[in-house]
Structures are given as structure tokens and as C-alpha cells.
């Protein structure tokens, strides 16, 4: 079956159906999908600019009572290998981030049943007293755990976190938004409805978030299409997502190590289909942390307009044996090699610095970072 008609409809601004998405997943014409996705990306972003944010991932605790089969990072509550970072350690990491021009802290950890709401609100207030930094932190699963421990509703918890200094919420833990896959790989994790509820509630209390997707758990094409449909529906209702990020499950060192690892071609196909289907989300991030810099660069031709974060620190993906460290200098180089103009942005996707025709200024910036 030819996918030309589907791609033509998408490029012309028509909404794709779940059946269309499944047909695209079944096709191997990945380059053709990439070309159409790139055309749509240019409608959102006509200038040849690829953005990135200078940020740090701070994994404040690895204690977790969700026990996902695919996670190599967590330690059970009470484990001698578990930790909760001291406040001073967190402050030091943020201080180092600010010193190199960083603007974003992605703080996330396990669902720790021993941390009350006051731990988070006190920490956020102390961070904001000390640093002019954007806190893009705590995934829906963590927020639901805080709600469970505190006895409050999710929206009330998010309101208190926001008032204490939380600025926006990452969409980690979405994996595949179907109960079939979630029950198989993370039986104790929040449901897909709870994930959506938390993201929409974040918008109601004055924040925004990002949507994520992880493929490679053995899910069906229909499940992938349903995931995209549920993200698009939530965005229609609440406009809670500024960006979409997808990546591949990394089975190494996890309880699902026998799972067949998908290829970079699978990743690029998913990026393209997501851009074609999600017609109401402006920004698509490249996942170079899991895919590597070269595939990350290639994804800029498959619908991505953003290179994500410099990720000064990343412990969850690297625990599964996959980590690609890229400094600011290399990000600038990779974006240029892709034929784009690099630009530093903030979490709201506002451009802070455009690296165009200013070689000396760029050299100075690289030396500082």
C-alpha cells in the first residue's frame, strides 16, 4: 500500500487518523516520511534554526517503589545502594550549571515513599533563593507519589510545588500510554490516565510540560498510534505541551535485556510519524542522549527542530549502558553540519543567543562553557 496519499494529506494540513499512523508504521518508506515531516516542521519553524538549552539533569534520589522492569537506575526503599542527595550537593550542581550559562534544571528521581511534600517545597524555595534558574522538574509519577504520601490531590500538590518554585514539568514516564504495555513492563506505575491528568493539571495551575514516548517494549503499532492520539487529544483540550520527545528503549542491564533492541531507522521513523500526527505541538526534540550525536543530527531532517539539553549529567539512561556526552562546542558543530544555525534557548523556547556569523563571540562562548 502506498503511503503517498497519507503524506500528502498531512502536508496539506489534514489531521491523520490512528489508521493512517498504523499504515505509516507498517511502511518501510522512512525517507519519504522524513521528507514530509521536515516540510511540516518548516511550517512551524521557517527559519533554518535549531535550538538547544544548556541544562543539567539532577537525579536527587534513586529510591523507588515502582520497580519498572525496564529501569536499571532505581533501588528499592531501604537498599544500601540507594541515596537521597543532600541539599548542599544539589545546590553545588546548580551553581556549576549557572556558572557555565545554564538556564534549566531537570530534577527527577524515583518514586520515593519516604519524602513528604515539604521536602520538595522547602528544597524548591531554597533553590530559588539562591539561583536564577528555571526548575523543569518532577515527572507525573513522582507527583502522584507525593500526592499519595501527602494525602492531597494531584492538582493541589502541583499548585504547592509551583508556588514554591517549580516552573514546568517534564513528561517522563509516559513510555507507551496504553494499559496493555504498562501492565507488562511497569505494573505498579501510574496509569496512562493519571499521566495525562497530571500534565493537564500542571497547565491549570500555571505551568506547562513536555510529552514523551518510548518505543521498543514489544508494543504493537496500534498501541503506538493510540499513544499519539492520546497526546494529541490532551493537547487539544489543554495546550499543556510545549514539546514532544521520543526515544528507544535501551534493554541493556535491565530486567528486559532479552528484548530486541530497535534500530536508529526505527527511531527516525517514529520521529517522522509523530511530527506528521501531532499537528498541535510546535517543538520536537532530538534524542541524542540515547541515539548518539550522529543520529541526533540526522533527526533534524525528520521533523526535529531542537537538539534538547546539553545534559551536563544524566544517570537514568546511562545506568542502562547508553550515554552520549555532548558539550556545547560539539552541539554547535553538529547543528552546523546539519545545515542549520544553532541558537541557545530557554525552557519556553525563547531564543537567548543566535550563533550566526560571529566567530569570535562563538569562540568566547565555547571557552566559557
Question: If you had to describe this structure to a student in words, what would you say it looks like?
Answer:
With 369 residues, the protein is an alpha/beta fold. It has one domain: TIM Barrel. The protein is 45% helix and 12% strand. It is built from 16 helices and ten strands. The protein has helices at residues 4-11, 18-26, 30-44, 87-99, 117-130, 140-150, 154-164, 179-185, 192-204, 221-238, 264-277, 288-291, 293-298, 316-319, 328-337, 359-368; strands at 49-53, 55-58, 104-107, 134-135, 209-215, 241-248, 283-285, 306-309, 341-345, 351-354. The strands form three sheets. The protein has a four-stranded mixed β-sheet. Helix 10 links the parallel strand 5 and strand 6. Helix 3 packs across helix 11. The protein is globular. It starts with a helix and ends with a helix. The model is unreliable at 314-325 (pLDDT under 50).
Give the overall shape, derived from the CA principal axes.
globular
Would you report the number of β strands?
10
Q: What CATH first level would be assigned?
A: Alpha Beta
Number of helices: 16
Indicate the radius of gyration in whole angstroms: 20 Å
CATH superfamily: Aldolase class I
CATH architectural grouping: Alpha-Beta Barrel
Structural class: alpha/beta
Beta-strand share of residues: 5-15%
Uncertain runs: 314-325
Written as H for each helix and E for each strand, in order along the chain, the element string is: HHHEEHEHEHHHHEHEHEHHEHHEEH
Main sheet makeup = 4 strands, mixed
What is CATH's topology name?
Answer: TIM Barrel
Fraction of residues in H or I helices: 40-55%
The separation of the N and C termini measures: 50 Å
Protein name: Cyclic dehypoxanthine futalosine synthase
Family: Belongs to the radical SAM superfamily. MqnC family.
EC number: 1.21.98.1
Enzyme class: oxidoreductase
Amino acid at each position: 500500500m502506498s503511503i503517498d496519499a497519507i503524506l500528502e494529506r498531512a502536508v496539506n494540513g489534514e489531521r491523520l487518523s490512528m489508521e493512517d499512523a498504523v499504515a505509516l508504521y507498517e511502511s518501510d518508506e522512512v525517507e519519504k516520511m522524513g521528507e514530509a515531516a521536515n516540510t511540516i516542521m518548516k511550517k512551524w519553524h521557517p527559519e533554518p534554526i535549531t535550538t538547544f538549552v544548556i541544562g543539567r539533569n539532577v537525579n536527587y534520589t534513586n529510591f523507588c517503589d515502582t520497580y519498572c522492569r525496564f529501569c536499571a537506575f532505581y533501588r528499592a526503599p531501604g537498599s544500601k545502594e540507594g541515596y537521597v542527595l543532600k541539599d548542599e550537593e544539589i545546590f553545588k550542581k546548580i551553581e556549576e550549571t549557572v556558572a557555565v550559562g545554564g538556564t534549566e534544571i531537570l530534577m527527577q528521581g524515583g518514586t520515593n515513599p519516604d519524602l513528604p511534600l515539604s521536602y520538595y517545597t522547602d528544597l524548591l524555595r531554597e533553590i530559588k533563593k539562591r539561583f536564577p534558574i528555571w526548575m523543569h522538574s518532577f515527572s507525573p509519577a513522582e507527583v502522584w507519589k507525593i500526592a499519595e504520601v501527602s494525602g492531597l490531590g494531584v492538582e493541589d500538590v502541583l499548585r504547592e510545588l509551583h508556588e514554591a518554585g517549580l516552573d514546568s514539568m517534564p513528561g517522563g514516564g509516559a513510555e507507551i500510554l496504553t494499559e496493555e504495555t504498562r501492565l507488562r513492563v511497569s505494573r505498579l506505575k501510574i496509569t496512562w490516565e493519571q499521566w495525562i491528568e497530571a500534565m493537564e493539571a500542571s497547565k491549570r495551575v500555571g505551568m506547562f510540560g513536555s510529552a514523551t514516548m518510548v518505543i521498543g517494549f514489544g508494543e504493537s503499532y496500534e498501541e503506538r498510534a493510540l499513544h499519539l492520539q492520546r497526546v494529541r487529544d490532551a493537547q487539544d483540550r489543554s495546550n499543556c505541551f510545549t514539546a514532544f520527545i521520543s526515544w528507544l528503549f535501551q534493554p541493556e542491564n535491565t530486567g528486559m535485556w532479552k528484548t530486541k533492541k530497535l534500530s536508529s531507522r526505527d527511531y527516525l521513523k517514529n520521529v517522522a510519524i509523530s511530527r506528521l500526527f501531532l499537528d498541535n505541538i510546535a517543538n520536537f526534540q532530538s534524542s541524542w542522549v540515547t541515539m548518539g550525536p550522529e543520529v541526533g543530527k540526522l533527526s533534524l531532517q525528520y521533523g526535529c527542530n531542537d537538539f534538547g539539553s546539553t545534559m551536563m549529567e544524566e544517570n537514568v539512561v546511562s545506568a542502562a549502558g547508553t550515554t552520549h556526552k555532548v558539550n556545547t562546542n560539539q552541539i554547535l558543530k553538529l547543528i552546523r553540519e546539519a545545515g542549520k544555525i544553532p541558537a541557545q534557548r530557554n525552557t519556553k523556547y525563547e531564543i537567548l543567543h543566535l550563533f550566526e556569523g560571529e566567530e569570535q563571540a562563538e569562540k568566547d562562548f565555547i571557552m566559557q562553557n
